[in-house]
Design goal:
- The chain has about 325 residues and is α+β, with helices and mostly antiparallel strands.
- The protein folds into two domains: about 170 residues, Ribonuclease H-like superfamily/Ribonuclease H (Nucleotidyltransferase, domain 5); about 110 residues, no CATH class.
- The chain is about 30% helix and about 25% strand.
- It is built from eight helices and 14 strands.
- The strands form four sheets. It has a five-stranded mixed β-sheet, with helices on both faces. The chain has a four-stranded antiparallel β-sheet with strand order 8-11-12-13, with no helix packed on it. A three-stranded mixed β-sheet has the order 9-10-14, with no helix packed on it.
- A hairpin with a 2-residue loop joins strand 11 and strand 12.
- The termini are far apart.
């Protein structure tokens, strides 16, 4: 039996339409007050200071009240995501339970589209622990699951920026602050039928966790770590050395002002410059003095610890012996 191609196309047309509809369909869901904050970046060019300047607009939308926060950046690096989030926390006066984000490379190391396995960036993990919020990632290639904020980005571009001219970057930032207060907060939202500010103050403000005067994440953090057998503690995916006698001990780590300060028993035992990379090993040679059989790194000036390749490559393997062996060499325990 034979049939014309057009006849077959007409026969399968309803099936093809059903498949297209299924691929586009998504179920609208509403989140309770204080539950979720959706975030994203939108890029555009804006007339600033007589030039068409590329701007990156960070937009955060509270899932319940639809209240919006927006801040302009010149890039979308990880620091911009964190500064944008903290700006939103301060603007709203508290933190939500979770943050829904797209699969930005600055935040998500891996997201398997089939299994939905997500591996977030180590620094994002630290940020979430610091603020007490949980990160969630949209399904890959389905950014509309973050629809409230996707529409928010378009709203900011079309309503707050398009058609305006700005004398300077500071004038641009001032305009965005005015727009949030006088336009976005008070317009009647098409879905909720209420002004976001009214809905926020009535139901959502009290549901957010208070900030309690906590400083920015990149300014100061207090962490607890255990010293590993390589005489180091891990912070944000990087290793920082401590005196070898502290192997196995719990220490307090404070990250502030670009420095990593490590304390034990109330005393400061190590200070390092914070590194912005990942999987780096920062070593102070003085931390290995007194270890028999260990390769001695070249001396470094005070306050300028160096990463020594001999230690990283394993020439200091003697450090991995049981701690009791080191104690016997120096005539007993160090405490």
């Amino acid at each position: 039996m034979t049939a014309l191609l057009r006849t077959i196309e007409r026969a399968v047309a309803p099936l093809r339409q059903a498949l297209r509809a299924e691929a586009r369909a998504c179920v609208r869901f509403e989140t309770p007050p204080g539950k979720q904050l959706q975030i994203d970046f939108g890029e555009m060019r804006a007339p600033i200071g007589g030039e068409a300047v590329r701007v990156h607009l960070f937009v955060a939308t509270l899932g319940y009240s639809r209240r919006v926060f927006v801040r302009a950046f010149r890039h979308e690096r990880q620091s911009a995501w964190f500064d944008g989030l903290e700006g939103a926390f301060r603007h709203f006066g508290g933190t939500p339970q979770e943050v829904l984000l797209d699969n930005a490379r600055a935040l998500v190391d891996h997201h398997d589209a089939a299994t939905r396995e997500v591996r977030f960036n180590e620094r994002l993990h630290a940020f979430g622990q610091y603020w007490g919020v949980r990160a969630r990632a949209c399904a890959p290639y389905r950014a509309r699951t973050k629809g409230k904020d996707e529409r928010g980005v378009g709203y900011v571009k079309g309503n707050a920026v398009a058609g305006h001219v700005f004398a300077s970057w500071s004038a641009f930032e001032a305009h965005l602050a005015w727009w949030m207060r006088e336009i976005a907060d008070v317009r009647v939202h098409g879905t909720t039928g209420e002004a976001p500010r009214v809905r926020f103050e009535r139901d959502e403000a009290a549901a957010l966790k208070p900030l309690d005067g906590r400083p920015p994440f990149r300014q100061a953090r207090e962490l607890a770590r255990r010293v590993q057998s390589d005489c180091a503690v891990e912070v944000d995916g990087n290793s920082y050395s401590v005196p070898w006698r502290l192997i196995g001990e719990s220490v307090e780590v404070r990250v502030a002002d670009g420095r990593v300060r490590i304390r034990h028993g109330g005393a400061e035992v190590a200070v390092h410059a914070e590194t912005t990379g990942r999987r780096q090993r920062i070593v102070d040679p003085a931390h290995f003095h007194g270890v028999a059989g260990a390769a001695r790194p070249a001396a470094a000036s005070e306050g300028s610890p160096t990463a020594d390749p001999r230690i990283e490559s394993g020439e200091a393997a003697a450090l991995l012996r049981p701690l009791a062996e080191y104690e016997s060499l120096i005539g007993g325990g160090w405490r």
